[in-house]
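Researcher: I'm comparing several assemblies side by side, and this is the next one on my list. It has 625 residues spread over two chains. Same procedure as the others: predict the full complex and return the structure.
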Amino acid sequence: MPYEYLEHTADVAIGVRAASLEEMLCDAARGLFSIMVPAEQLSPLRPVEIVLNAGSVETLLVDWLAELLAQKDLRRLFFCRFVVTLEPRGADGLSLHGTAWGEPLDRRRHAVGAEVKGISHAGLRVEHEGCGWVARFVVDV
Amino acid sequence: MSDVMRLQRVSDVEWRLPPSGAMRGAARVYCDEAMAEDLCREAESGGWSALVQLRNVASLPGIVGDALALPDVHPGYGFPIGGVGAFDLRDGVVVVGGVGFDINCGVRMLATPLGVEALGSREALADLLFERVPAGLGSEGAVRLSVREIDDLLRGGARYAVARGYGLAEDLAYIEDGGCLAGADPSAVSERAKQRQFRQVGTLGSGNHYLEVQVVEEVFDAQAARIYGLERGSVVVSIHSGSRALGHQIGQDYLKVMESAGRRYGMSPEEKELACAPVDSDEGRRYLEAVACGGNCAFANRQVLAHLVREALAARFGVPRAAVRTVYDIGHNNAKREWHEVDGERRELLVHRKGATRAFGPGRDEVPEPYRAVGHPILVGGTMGTASYVLRGTPLGMAKAFASGVHGAGRSLSRKKAAKRFWGEDVASSMKAQGIELRAHSLRGIAEEAPGAYKDVERVVSAAERAGINRRVARLRPAIVIKG
């Protein structure tokens, strides 16, 4: 499993370990949406393009996930497939181009979980470790 | 041993953390001894700690009196849940984490003319409420708003909902602040926040939000219960919901604004979500205008949900809509300007209550006139299988706790552990055996919200009462539980 749910009393914490920052962002998104609907029950029917800039990898992760949550409400789509490309921007910044694919919720087919309301900065960690990236973040349910 | 371990006993249910390091004042915790020990252990573990967060709140500029934690305190985002911080209007700050992301999340209680025996088979009403009240992931409300209408809702709160035909004008007097927070400016709220809310007005949400049909099981304060219209054996309905996606988007938007403003004003809070700006600054004022909008959205949301409950009771039992009376509607994620007496001086302060309610006791002008002799009700959610409480404020609580009340039980098990330990269908059948009808859209959600995953609400309420800051009025037992 590229992501795991960690112990957290009040909400849900997700840990991700990946070979690249791009992969880490995609796995984090899968972990996030699987709280709501198991990814294997969703089909990647409709794409949504996401473009954003961030000054740090921590902000990049939070902004990417928060943007996906906003798109869930705006487009009424639950996402299961993600592709991300990153480019450097300025001294420390990064520019993200991403695509998320998903489909509308169908409660007859999808085993729904709790709705994720937001992404927290509390306990947020994104680090380059060994030859990959690790991240830990908490989502508000 | 860390600094936070120097928790001094004031009484069996009151503990003090004296100022040290960056703290500008003391911190005070109302809880029993076992809870205090748990809090110290949590702080010593070096992990997420409510006491460390409370110390950080006490270190913010312009804090007045002590940073407070109530018996249901647990770690939050920057600011502890069950935490209260009052700030000076000139020198103090407004803190994003002190309001939280589900702005004005709270509880509406409706009193019905029904007695427990009139409920009969609970299944039919449970099915009807489950069908009519949008709840859970992906649910959409019946209210459809245009861009202009959502601005009207953000300005008007429950008043707007009543004007649109949801509920009764009489409800408004029994909602905190009349159901409409002053100073709400929709231009302070992003278009994205408004667009995310278009389909969510009149939806319950998921997680710990609920709609419960409850029976008044025991009355502790006969005078207050009579004044609130709560009789032993009578049926009430409680709705726990908030400002949904709009509140979250406001929090997310302003976290960035306040973080950047805070740097300019020389603030360096310990945690990112303690981002703050002076109350008396453009950014602080703008955030408070947006918070008022979020608060009004939550009031309107609960007003629409109350209307749906009235419709269901009318359809099932023929109960006239006007016979279903709002007992009270109170939020527990807010920052409000209030007058308090501090060291013998009457001062207007900005009081943050994160996972804590307002608890004005007898005599305050803000309390609805019919309740003024005893103070307004504090609505405390327990767990879906145990009990909820109605409390009231006290003169001591107004003097010692900036008139604040507990809001719930607080989790004891993570969702992950709860989902491993409990099985949704078992939880539902165990509740049915106790006479509680549960309807939920998510089996996983039932396991995660199992009563065994929460702390004992009795201990929370008992500690608040023994500390003298809140007083028990009545205990409520669930009969029907609707979850997302």
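Model: For your comparison table: Residues 313 and 377 of chain B are 23 Å apart (CA to CA).
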